[in-house]
Amino acid sequence: MKTAKKPTERNRLVVLSVLSAVFSVFFVLLLMSYQIVQGAELNEQTHQMTSSKLPIKAARGDIVDCNGVAFAENKAGFNIVFQYAFLPRSQQNEIIRELVELCEENGVEWYDPLPITRTGTPQFLNEQEKEIATLKKKLELNVYATAENCMYYLLDTFNIEGYDDETARKIAGVRYGMVISDFSINNNQYVFAQDVPIEFILKIKEMSHQFPGVDIVEEDIRSYPNGDLLPHVVGTIGAMYAEEYEENYKELGYKMNSQVGRFGIEKVMETTLHGVDGVRAVEQNKRGDVISEEVTQAPQSGDKVVLTVDAAFQRKVKEALEEHIAWLRSRPNGKGNTVKAGSVVVLDVKTGGVLAMVNYPSFDINNYFSDYTALLNDKNNPLFNRATDGLYRPGSTFKTAVAVGGLEEGIINPNSTVNCQHTYYYYDILPNNQFRPTCLGWHGQTNVSKALTVSCNIFFYDVGRRLGIDKMNEYAGLLGLGEETGLEIPSKKGALSGPARSESLGSTWFQGNVVQAAIGQMDTSVTPLQLAIQAMTLANKGTRYKAHIIKEVRSYDDKEVLSSTDPEIASQFEIHPQNYQAIVEGMIGAAEKVGGSYSLSNLGYQVAIKTGSPQVDNNTTNSALIGFAPVDNPEIAVGVMLEEGENANYLMRRILDAYYSTHGKNSAYGVKGEAGEGSGEENDDTSPGESENPALGSDSQPE
Predict the structure, then answer these.
(1) CA–CA separation, 585 vs 410, rounded Å?
(2) Residue at 46 is within a domain
(3) Helix, coil or strand: residue 261
(4) Smallest Cα–Cα separation from 258: which of 269, 242, 247, 272?
């Protein structure tokens, strides 16, 4: 017999059944709502989910000196950026105007690549040919378009209306920057201002409601802790142009908004320093909320570039050149007081590595962009790398090449003499000759050693004439003059005098021009770097190394040497021992003539130099020097050029003292504002034919 269920159990079953029915109905209705009522909306939301691949910027590699002292490194900093997805199109001009005004009030620079003046009638900026061509191409204007034409099209294209001319120009500069950086949905971040002070960042954050689409990002910022030491060589980075992206960087995986090297080591070693950006995959809904993110590719930091330059030595040579020029300018009636500029290059004799490369005037690379207009308009052109690109007549420093050629070709021997009686009469063999070049002295019977010591023009007129222009240039080339230097950054080749050179310059080569060329005049042009290479090759008895300024490349963490620069012979010939000895004796003699505070005779080792006073025109001369030391076992070779200066030989002592006080010492020695040595220039020790330069007549010749 079955047992009847109790009433309580029956009630429970009823309640459970009802609840199950209610929940079933609820979920059925909810499912119907999702699929039927809200189906279209949810389907739209699903399709509006966006997936983005955002770059993770790789840390740029450092540039350091041979001891690890930083020339270029990274520091944490803040950038003001525009986010494409959130920047209201209709408000862009007004947002830019407010930001620019705020920047001006707080002394903050913003990125403005427009090559047009910011005030007054629109004019193209000087020496911005490439940038101007890019502007015209972007605006689809012909090559004859003026700055005013370009401004008109910019204002029209970007609907910049209702502003005064100066404000409109500033807005146009930013809008143009957005264009050349390809600011778009595919390249959704534009850097408006870089490395902004924290006080300004806080102000922007407080006013964030006024700046939709404007964001603050913390990134590695390029920093130049010794920015005044080697600016022409180190270079800087900046935004790339769209054309550069397509031509050079797209295939390398760069992003359109990447910062790239603009010149110097930053440019030539760009791919080494840049590293490889990482990738972050981000999913967002239509409201912009991040649903998920994942690092799909980790960034790889750039490698470290180690230079051959010693920062401490560079600092001291820089101070020596600056103080010498200041001293020359301080002499109201002294020769060389109109000196405009100068350059010093010091090479490692045994490798060709650059130990110091100094230009005056110069600049601080940290202020390159902010001071660019002023630097560009400076009459003495501090942006110009005179060491590598300045072309000058070598003057009497060239006589060493003639001496080598004459001796090695057997035209003379160490004991051969030429009788110097102030005037060279050889060309009187020609009818009605009026060409009688002169010397600075009356030296009598003079051999090659004495001729180098006293810088006798008559001796080198005669040897150069007998040697001939082709052989003269052959030996000059072997010493590195008029030849490629091998340096990693661009450097000028220069040129040597001769019939072809004269023709290229639109002039005629005459028979007597060879004697002018023999003393470093005529159309010969060389760089200070080539002067140092000439000195290095003499010190090496005919072996010329390619100049180089990159010592090695190391991994970012400094644990591994990835590549190194080995000494490379560019050319080699033998200077026979007796000939070498005769040349060096003459150069030692020139060094021993330097007295007073700059004496080269009391160092404990011998120094070899040859000075020159190359003529620029009838009223202007430069001052040049080549030299090496110690003579018995040469370590450094020096090239100096002073524009409208004097007493380049005075710098040799300062350079040698600087070298031996820094070489092999603590890496931080002398860097960042160490007090310089006193110039001691109060002792104006001069020597006939060297520091004292008589007025040059039309037929007289410079040293």
Answers:
(1) 19
(2) no
(3) strand
(4) 242
Tokens for 545, please give them. 């190394």
Distance CA(414)–CA(582), nearest Å, equals 6
Tokens of 108: 């903050």
Residue where a domain terminates, one of 307, 333, 351? 307
252 plus 328 within the same structural domain: no
Tokens of 98: 């407010």
Nearest alpha-carbon partner for 679 in 243, 327, 370, 335: 327
DSSP H or E segment with residue 290: strand 290-297
Same domain, 509 and 642: yes
Domain assignment of residue 693, yes or no:
no
Indicate whether 335 and 233 sit together in one domain: no
| Domain residue limits at 584 | 313-662
Residues 298, 330 within the same domain: no
- Indicate if 394 and 294 belong to the same structural domain: no
DSSP β-bridge partners for residue 364: none
pTM of this structure: 0.79
Kindly state whether residue 184 falls inside one of the protein's structural domains.
Answer: yes
Q: In terms of domains, do 251 and 383 share one?
A: no
Nearest 5°: the CA angle 361, 497, 529 is 35
Q: How do residues 320-376 score in pLDDT, each as one tens digit? A: 999 999 999 998 887 889 999 999 999 999 999 999 999 999 999 999 988 888 898
pLDDT, tens digit (0-9, with 9 covering 90-100), for 383-421? 999 999 999 999 999 999 999 999 999 999 999 999 999
Residue 96 lies in a domain: yes
The verdict on 92 and 146 lying in the same domain is yes
Q: Distance between CA 521 and CA 518 in Å, rounded? A: 7
Q: Give which of 515, 501, 518 is closest to 435, Cα–Cα.
A: 515
Question: Of 523, 541, 394, 380, which is closest to residue 455 (Cα–Cα)?
Answer: 394
The position carrying tokens 């060493």 is 400
From residue 645, how far is each of 186, 315, 610, 612 by CA, in Å?
Answer: 56, 21, 16, 11
Over the stretch 488-504, which tens digit does the pLDDT of each residue have?
999 999 999 999 999 99
* Spatial distance between the Cα atoms of 498 and 117, rounded to a whole number of angstroms: 44
DSSP characters over 594-647: --GGG-SSSSSS--EEEEE--EEETTEE-EEEEEEE-SSS--EEEEEEEET---
Q: What is the DSSP letter of 602?
A: S
- Least Cα distance to 426 among 461, 457, 460, 451 occurs for 461
Q: Determine how many CB atoms are found less than 10 A away from the CB of residue 290.
A: 10
Domains identified in the chain, total number: 2
* Residue 251 clears pLDDT 90, i.e. is over it: no
